[in-house]
């Protein structure tokens, strides 16, 4: 379970309503994107840029919210999930 408030935000409640009442047609595919600007000098971001501290990285940190949103908007369980993570190898924050 994700204990998060997003599904109660007004714009998400409207999305849920639209998806579940068929206003969007039959949903076959859900895609989502997340991004975040990091400042490794800030204590709240420092762990995110250090592989040994980051656990599963951004996929585990933020990616779960995409899956959670797909579930609460559609009211269904996914049959397949794909994910991708990318960090710019030339960015000195990720050395």
The domain tally reads 1
Order of helices and strands: HHH
CATH homologous superfamily? Dihydrodipicolinate Reductase, domain 2
Kindly estimate the percentage of residues that lie in beta strands according to DSSP. Answer: under 5%
Number of helices: 3
Helix content: 25-40%
CATH T-level fold name: Dihydrodipicolinate Reductase, domain 2
How far do the termini sit from each other? Answer: 33 Å
- CATH classification, class level: Alpha Beta
Q: Uncertain spans, ≥5 residues at pLDDT below 50?
A: none
Biggest β-sheet, characterized? Answer: none
Main structural class: mainly alpha
Please give the radius of gyration in angstroms. Answer: 16 Å
Number of strands: 0
Tell me the CATH architecture. 2-Layer Sandwich
- Which of globular, elongated, flat, extended, rod-shaped describes the shape? elongated
Give the overall average pLDDT: 83
Describe the structure.
By secondary structure, the chain is mainly α. The chain has a single domain (6-86), classed as Dihydrodipicolinate Reductase, domain 2 (2-Layer Sandwich), CATH 3.30.360. It is 35% helix and 0% strand. It has three helices and no strands. It has helices at residues 10-20, 43-46, 57-74. The longest helix has 18 residues, at 57-74. The chain is elongated. It starts with 9 loop residues before the first helix and ends in a 21-residue tail after the last helix. The model has no long low-confidence stretch (mean pLDDT 83).
